[in-house]
Amino acid sequence: MKNSQPKLALGPVSYYWARDTLLDFYEQMAETTIDIIYLGETICSKRKILRTSDWLALAERLVIAGKEVVLSTLALLEAESELKTLRKLCENEHFMIEANDMAAVQLLEGTPFVTGHSINIYNTRALARLVSFGLRRWVLPVELSRDTLVDMICPAEVETELFVYGRLPLAYSARCFTARAHNLPKDDCQYCCLDYPDGLTLYSQEDKPFLTLNGIQTQSAYTYNLLPALTDIKTMEIDVLRISPQSRHTEKVIEIFQCGLDDPETVKEGMTRLQRLMPIGACDGYWYGNKGMEEKAIEWSKK
Predict the structure, then answer these.
(1) Of 34, 258, 276, 297, which is most buried with the most CB atoms under 10 A?
(2) Mind listing the pLDDT tens digit for each residue in 219-254?
């Protein structure tokens, strides 16, 4: 049965943070109202601040704190060592896995799993096929619109999760763009991603924010924000709303979305607060079937 109100989920940390910073962050998240927490490295296997055993231990602590925990996998696999780590995660007997690559889907066939936004589920047939493998929750690819989601026929046993806040994950590459920005080869990157806790923002020749570099991942410069659409979203059969972590104020973002779910009257005030918490600014174009960098919320705020 679908929930009357969506749960809030915290996506995996996309960036490379120091060990103490990461552990302190999750200690803080354990005190929030977030329902589901995704854990794990999804971008680069060189980011080994925490080992697999560390992630599992952290997951146990968060379960004790009352959170549902899902272990996330890499979105782009390039080496046998990465497959070995993936197999170890998929073989754990305690936590559901978020598959971010089809290799993970194949390893998980026959067991319940989640698909992340990097798995291209664009139609009902693809969704039904993955359900036959064991899919229990899927994340709508971020470039798809509200109307596309409405047209998707989701089996009753499958939960739908929607990315509602955070810099948009747009693409992955075998090349490390952050290293290239420092004229460093990928194999000797000197872990320069540590210097950019929210990614490295690129600007156009007109000095406008364009993209964000995050190792092998390219993100939007602006923060995707569907808080103004929350009332509409609540009328749809969406089970989980995903917030992507940022280096500062994630707990405040969670609070704003929780208040918006509990009381729609707080959404406009929440928008004002959110604008001060975003690294640069907001976008929401994809949700409305427009250009991704557009922000319909500007029109909404003038009503």
Answers:
(1) 34
(2) 999 999 999 999 999 999 899 999 999 999 999 999
